[in-house]
């Protein structure tokens, strides 16, 4: 994958269609807004501040591959950036020589060259060069890592103790929600919240175990009785929908996601509808990948908070069960537990159904 070619790979087929000709300009403007917001944020951060940017893996269609860039403000206005390298990627998603060359051309040092970079690509800049650094980060996420739109990015701004730092929004990228800004009424019914927090508070407990403890507590069952598939995803039935909880290690991330509809025709009307619905959601997003409509709420595993996961699961189970019925009635397709649902006939499906998910 090359820097110039990656953008065409991720969106070119769709954006060349006459009915969506204006989408290229919209996506380009969204990336400019993201880069501008990041450039404005960096000079305001104190030493020790971090900005973690992660491509939502459920939206990227890259399986277990998680692409991320982390920026850290050092003393004297120095900014150190680290970008995921091949050592942290599954074999089938590792970068080839051309892609590594593209990273170097953008200004990244190969893994291990910059002191302390370890297995990641490294880059050092300064707060007074925030515009150039933000451009490099934006192009890395979009052109090399293949993020189709900033809305697929999840970010967190925090200090060295992992305490969140108030920051202006980074364009349409999604911020890890603050529990102070959301309605948590009902989450602590029958002491479930206290029980979950008590069981997952120790840092020595693996993230996967902490996550399963929370899900089991919410489901009023035991960890051993959870429904876990071959991929290690915990399944939760929500009416006619199915919600999955997946734990990723590098970077630590918890995906709460649901295949709302399958075998649905990806039309412009569908993309517009998903965009409108996403804009109304307090957290998470909706998107279409090939012929499947997905809902996703990522939760950071760093400084894991049980209440954040409980909120994500509560929101997703209600959202999935409501939206699969609503969208099925308007766009057809098949619900996860929709008996008698009829898929879109193959001859009526888009000829470009191999394309990656596109957010409008």
UniProtKB/TrEMBL annotation:
Pfam families registered for this protein in UniProt: TY-Chap1, TY-Chap3
Domain TY-Chap central: 207-338
Domain of life from the UniProt record: Bacteria
Residues in TY-Chap N-terminal domain copies: 29-153
UniProt-recorded name of the protein: YbjN domain-containing protein
InterPro entries: TY-Chap_M, TY-Chap_N
Region called Disordered, residue ranges: 338-360
Region forming the signal peptide: none
